[in-house]
Design goal:
It is built from seven helices and eight strands. The protein has 189 residues and is of the alpha+beta class. The chain has one domain: 3-Layer(aba) Sandwich (Aminopeptidase), CATH 3.40.630.30. An eight-stranded mixed sheet has the order 1-2-3-4-5-6-8-7, sandwiched between helices. The protein is globular.
């Protein structure tokens, strides 16, 4: 799975990273990426203070089935350290709905990496018959809420955070994973 979908992509600043499906041997890359997130970025991503990931969490985040649980990872070309991850986990009670999340290390935020990973995640979800992404976002997290509003996310309060739902068919251009990877490699995002 990973080899056919590996791609070097160009970010807005001209830097290049490797994007591919996550693998079981990416545990250290996730540990390193977490270390590169500021405490504020960690809190926004996990909705709680997180300083480390347990072995159980690392297994859960890297040993996935690639259908109901999928994740794209971006790594540094030189040292393979983790730079960003986008993942979805299908809701077992609502098979067409998946919880989606994205985390980009602080020094790569604003370079287009999140956009690339999200587009790939949406293409993958649609190929796996997921039609809606659901996320929980802090109300003051304008960095995430702004883009969600632009794609028509429905928001409702849910115990101090906002629950956002996005209908993937309404926001996606229909590109396949391969087409999206080709566009990202060409620096089109």
């Amino acid at each position: 799975m990973a080899t056919e979908h590996e791609q070097i992509v160009t970010l807005r600043d001209g830097s290049q990273v490797l994007v591919r499906p996550i693998r079981a041997d990416d545990k250290q890359a996730l540990v390193e990426a977490l270390d590169r997130l500021s405490p504020e970025s960690r809190y926004r991503r996990f909705l709680r203070p997180v300083t480390r990931l347990s072995e159980r969490e690392l297994r859960y985040l890297t040993e996935i089935d690639y259908t109901s649980h999928f994740a794209w990872i971006a790594t540094d070309l030189d040292d393979e350290s983790g730079l960003g991850v986008a993942r979805y986990v299908r809701d077992p009670n609502e098979p067409e709905v998946a919880e989606a999340a994205v985390a980009i290390v602080d020094d790569y935020q604003g370079k287009g990496l999140g956009t690339i990973l999200i587009r790939l995640l949406v293409a993958t979800a649609l190929e796996n018959e997921i039609k809606v992404f659901r996320s929980w976002v802090l109300g003051e997290n304008r960095q995430v809420l702004g883009p969600l509003e632009r794609v028509g996310a429905r928001r409702t309060p849910d115990e101090g955070v906002l629950k956002a739902e996005v209908d993937l068919g309404e926001v996606f251009d229909g590109s396949s994973v391969q087409e999206t990877l080709r566009a990202a490699a060409a620096g089109e995002f």
